[in-house]
Amino acid sequence: MTQEANTVILQILLLAAAVGALVYFVRSGQSVGVRASKRIAFGAFIVLNIYAVLRPDDLTYLARAVGIGRGTDLLVYLLVVAFVFGMLNTYLRDREISQHLTNLARQIAVRDAELTRRENDLEQRLTALEQQATTNGHRPAATEPAATASADELGTARSTGS
């Protein structure tokens, strides 16, 4: 194969990868929460990538216009900036997720403490009622309806004559 044929094949592969990344980004279920600015930035990055693959001489011209010797160097510098942006974005998202997890853990701990407090209050009330019934001469038996049935069950039992 000639050098030009190899270049065309590489360009086709790079374009397919760029379009595939764009399609995946747009269609993935996770992209729902992605802000519009990130979508626009990613779309612009893909468009510039496609342009650079199709017109590498223009990239070299642009690089020389801004004082960089080669288009490849300019592309590497831009990729470093994109990488730093991606890492910063990932860090901020992880920090936000960590904060949400901390808040959820606090809410669960408070709810569990409240449930434990309510259970303890109910146990104390039940103990007080049992002690009061014992001091009044009534010993609650395990077979008495008050000890084993709820108020709804008692009401139903009394209304049916059981």
Automatic annotation (TrEMBL):
Keywords assigned by UniProt, alphabetized: Membrane, Transmembrane, Transmembrane helix
Sequence ranges of Low complexity compositional bias: 140-151
InterPro entries: DUF2304
Transmembrane segments: 6-26, 38-54, 74-92
Pfam families (UniProt xref): DUF2304
Chain positions covered by the region annotation Disordered: 132-162
Protein name: DUF2304 domain-containing protein
